[in-house]
Amino acid sequence: MPVSVTRQEDGTFVFHGRSNNITEDKGNALRPYGKQLHNYGLVVRLLPDSAQASALNQQIGNARFMANRYLNERDECFHKEHRILSVAEFKGKRFPELKAEFPFLLLSDKFGLEAAVEHMDKAFSRFYKKESGFPKFASKRGKKGSRYTTKQTGGNLAFEEKGGLPYLKLPKVGLVRFVLPKGTSLPLLCPKGTRILKAVISRTASGTYEASLGMETVIDRVVPVDVLSARDVIGMDLGLHDYCTLSDGDGTCKVENPRWIRLHGRRLRRFQKALSRKEYDRKTHTGSKNWEKARLRVAREQRKTACQRKDFQHKLSRALTDRCSAVVCEDLNIKGIMKNRHLSKPTASVGWYGFLSKLEYKLKKEGKHLIRVSRWFPSSQTCHACGYKNREVKDLGIREWDCPSCGVHNDRDGNAAETLRLEGLRLLGEAGVRIQEAA
Ligand SMILES: [Zn+2]
Hints:
Number of strands: 20
Mean pLDDT: 89
Bound molecules: zinc ion
Oligomer: single chain
Strand content: 15-25%
Low-confidence stretches: none
Largest sheet: 7 strands, antiparallel
Shape: globular
């Protein structure tokens, strides 16, 4: 049955039918209405009472149990029978048997158990594709073993308001209080026609609970900007010394690394050192009271910086999106950089990947462009004024240079940003976008 859509009296849309490619088909069904789907993520902090916290822990524990059970049986099946135990077979045959044997599994919602097994299956696929090592057991102390996933069916996942307070409805757990993000209200957070498709509930290292929600809403069709002014195209060189250098053709500007990056490094090191001095039994995985306190301090510090980083990335990407129609940057090979031990630390803390993905979806939602220039393009070595390629500039230590061909004085990062911008303009032109030179 193909996917169709009907418009309700209140202007919201209701989808009918099933498909293997649901997101694309829903989008196609919305086309005649001049609308499109918009999927986005939302993270909220949960405030469960003690009964709800134990219900959440049960779900998390059951998901971990199922994932590990599947890993174990699949491995065994492979060695004894030389075949792969598929997810479908495990679900169809073993689920009922396991539920009979371990009644606590009945306390879980069905999706939580299924998703755990599916995730483990994906870990196997990555292993076959040589993208990662052999799947590991989910551990209570690891991230993988501290969360579960659930999906929408018939309104089981929803926001609700009760007595003026915001609640998230979760299957088998009930209405759980959550913290409304600053400056929002429930109707703003979830306007009519917005649905929660999926929720990943996790217990964080600092002992709090959060829900990471996959949201879906219908918005006016985004029309890609196909005529733009050359001044609204910004070249961006991501750096280690400065966060990034921007160029709009008229001049360049540097965005400094936020101060907390270094501060955090120092504090974290101090806390970690303190933690390592406390008593901890590696065999039983138990620590002294002071060990537990020190562990929490490390976890909180990490969490705090993660929040600061996200906040910074959102603000910078919002400012860029408001200012321009296209951003041109280098297509970074993040994995490769992370493997380089000399560069990995600053890169990890600067978090380019997170920044670029935030920038990309913000631009996309407004029909604007993020152009990724091949990382083989010699942006720092090419003179922006005449195109001369100066191989000597390969040395990262050279911060400024004079072009031997045209004599222009180049600042390394500013020149790279402008060269990227010019290459981006060329690529935009190739893609059929009309560029108007500024008057
Ligand atoms: Zn030159």
